[in-house]
Amino acid sequence: MMMNPSSKPRINGELIVKFKGQVVCALGKLKNINPGGSSFVMTLADGADVEVFSSEEIDQSTEGMIEVMGEVGGTGNQIQSHSHRAMGDVDFDMNLYNEAVKLSHQYPEYYKVGGPDGGDMQ
């Protein structure tokens, strides 16, 4: 399946290394915000931690679920954020989401990556 150049595949910790240098969508729980607020650590759906670097300072009071669109760094456990959205403490089944992410990569012919506008966050 050919991906639209503006599409952003959803990933978990197991899949992130396959997307080095590419823009992805990562959903997880905020673990901690590093001093200075220019980076934070989030725990992805499969329990893997990833460090996210942002040009925007992260509000120290941010907590809960966060979604990041960004480029996977060379180490495979870092993302340079293009945009992120904090969703707060919501009731969300991360195990079920992780299974959906894995299935979307196992059977890409059944899952469209990105929306009609490329799936960008507003």
In short:
With 122 residues, this protein is mainly beta.
Task: Give the key terms.
about 120 residues; 5-stranded mixed beta barrel; about 10% helix; globular; disordered N terminus
Word description of this protein:
With 122 residues, this protein is mainly beta. It is 11% helix and 35% strand. The chain has one helix at 94-106; strands spanning 10-11, 23-33, 39-44, 49-53, 65-72, 78-88. The chain is globular.
Structural class designation: mainly beta
Anisotropy-based shape: globular
Write the element-wise H/E pattern from the N-terminal end onward: EEEEEEH
- Largest sheet data: 5 strands, mixed, barrel
| End-to-end CA span | 26 Å
Please report the total strand number as a whole number: 6
Strand content: 35-45%
SSE diagram, text form:
Layout: E1 10-11, E2 23-33, E3 39-44, E4 49-53, E5 65-72, E6 78-88, H1 94-106
Parallel strand pairs: 1-2, 4-6
Antiparallel strand pairs: 2-3, 2-5, 3-4, 5-6
